[in-house]
Amino acid sequence: MTTTAAERLVESLVAHGVDRVFCVPGESYLNVLDALRDSNIDTIVARHEGGASMMAEADGKLTGRPGVCFVTRGPGATNASSGLHVAEQDSTPLVLFVGQVASDLLGRGAFQEVDYDKFYGGIAKTVIQLSNGDDVAEIVRAAFGIACNGRPGPVVVALPEDLQGTLRGRLPPVGRSTPVLAVPSDADVASLRIMLEEAERPIAIVGGSGWSPGGVGHLQAFAETWNFPVSVVFRRQQLFDHDHPNYAGDCGIGINPDLKNRIENADLVLLLGTRFSEIPSQGYTLLEHPADGQRLVHVHCAECDRFAHADLVFRCHPEQVLVAIGNEAAKPNAQRAAQVTAAHADFEAWSAQPPRIPGSLQMGEVIQHLRAVLPDDAVICNGAGNYTTWVHRYFRFRRFGSQLAPTSGSMGYGLPAAIAAKLRHPSRAVICFAGDGCFQMTSQEFGTAAQHGANVIVLVVDNGMYGTIRMHQERRFPTRTHATDLVNPDFAAIARAYGGFGGTVSATEEFAPALQQALTAEVPAILHLLLDPEAITPETRLSALAGR
Fold first, then answer.
1. H or E element: which one contains 547?
2. Is residue 251 within 8 Å of 259, Cβ to Cβ?
3. pLDDT tens per residue, range 150-187
4. Which of 95, 108, 145, 287 has its CA 20 to 30 A from that of 394?
5. What pLDDT is attached to residue 170?
6. Is 0.85 topped by the overall pTM?
7. pLDDT for 110-138, tens place per residue?
8. pLDDT at position 548
């Protein structure tokens, strides 16, 4: 039996458990589109390649398997790079298949040709290009293995147009990659156990990708058994229940000063799964140099050379270490129990009561209402901007799999991520927070939501500007603002134009009924929240930044 390379590629995707791909169609991979038509793989058609790649990245976060995206050559490939950058920074497994010019035209500057090795060189873990005679199934297997092993990330597979239709005779059965899991040594586990027993002021800081519900359960059991306060890093808040008495808050932008002080004065710090890069390290200052008497243990699957002064490193996923430690009861320690209680009290004091802000719409009350009415399994998505402070500081994440947010700080991420989440979990509430600038980076993907029945709810927080940039501009160049104002449309009308539900909220008391309508509308929804521009952050006023 003969088969084309495109058909074998799709067969390989099925073998790897792929049930959904995201794409923008293009003539450079028509053979693959034809093969997908005859498969059981759900093909989601996005409006822009950046949106498609972000959807695939979010799907990878949700499933732990590589998200899959198909785009066309040249402009399609370059557009998709925004989602690849998220995957690289967020350590998310992703495989991007890109159409390429015909193999006999490579290197000649053909129409829409791009050298993908050079273009994706600093973003993708590797770029693989199909050559004449290659078995595309082996390329798929290699791509999935590279995307998942070590620190997960994006892989690009380039498909020359003429080779996709190549007929092949008898071929070996399609295989699939098997992740390689490193395990900690018994000696290192024994050393860690001694450190755990000796510590009086410990803290765990948790982040990274590749976690599972079981691993998060092991983390909670570890915290309870050993009396550890647990902090999470920037936009990894779903890794620990905020209502749990061992939760100490998030180590990100605008860190609670009490939490920062607790980390600096801990005698044992466990970094579990996080690279502890610029944002959680507060600009590479926190934990960069050993404090007197402080021990540091770093657990990361690939990058354990980050702290030369670390006392112990584990080159594996933290789930493996937590399983190895087990739940053997630690000796009672009243001082550590008191530390846990104090750390959670600090978090509660920092985040329980949002401040009042100028204007008739109080974002603090919006967040409190969402906390009260949304189920624990609701998925909260966002992109980047000052508006995210309300979510990160005042919302309560209670369950693994309830957050999709880019540690890369990419604007426009919230809506594509929400679409991926709703398609993956259609019975769960999915809420997208977006600023007015952030939303308009990918707002056309609301059409994707409408077409594929992804009934997301988008909360567009509109203050008429690129708020984060304006904040920095006001601080550095007082009274000289430029290029940060926005003239916005009626966002609720955009929702209605796509057949969705649209509502405008200009006062606090209007939010609850509008949200209820959106939750029961059975169509995608946009709630247009009109925020006073003075409320540049929960605690900072725009006019105060320039000393006016």
1. none
2. yes
3. 999 999 999 999 999 887 766 677 777 777 778 899 99
4. 287
5. 64
6. yes
7. 888 899 999 999 999 999 999 988 899 99
8. 55
In angstroms, the CA 441 to CA 314 distance is: 39
Gap between the Cα atoms of 96 and 70, Å rounded: 6
In the CATH scheme, what is the homologous superfamily, with its name and number, of domain 363-545? Thiamin diphosphate (ThDP)-binding fold, Pyr/PP domains (3.40.50.970)
Q: Which residue has the tokens 């092949």?
A: 168
Q: How far apart are CA 273 and CA 67, in angstroms?
A: 21
Classify 525 as helix, strand or coil.
strand
What is the structure's pLDDT at 107?
83
186-350 has the same fold as 3-168: yes
pLDDT at residue 102, rounded to an integer: 83
Q: Hey, what's the torsion of the CAs at 391, 394, 400, 403, to 10 degrees? A: 0
Helix, strand, coil percentages, rounded to 5, for the chain: 40, 15, 45
Alpha-carbon distance of 474 to 472, in angstroms, equals: 5
Ramachandran area for residue 527 (φ above 0: left; ψ -120 to 50: alpha; else beta): beta
Beta-bridged to residue 99, according to DSSP, are: 159
Q: Letter for the amino acid at 84?
A: L
HEC-encoded secondary structure of 316-358: CCHHHHHHHHCCCCCCCCHHHHHHHHHHHHHHHHHHCCCCCCC
Domain spans of the chain, in order of start:
3-168, 186-350, 363-545
CA 369 from chain centre, in angstroms, equals 24
For residue 452, what is the enclosing H or E element? Answer: helix 446-452
What is the topology classification, in CATH, of domain 186-350?
Answer: Rossmann fold (3.40.50)
Q: Which CATH number fits domain 3-168: 3.40.50.150, 3.30.70.100, 3.40.50.970, 2.30.30.100?
A: 3.40.50.970
Measured from the Cβ of residue 543, the count of other Cβ atoms closer than 10 Å reads 13
Helices (H) and strands (E) in the chain — how many of each? 21, 20
At 306, which helix (H) or strand (E)? none
> For the chain, which residues score pLDDT lower than 50?
none
Tell me how far apart the 2 most distant CA atoms of the chain are, in Å: 77
CA-CA distance, 31 to 163, in Å (whole number)?
9
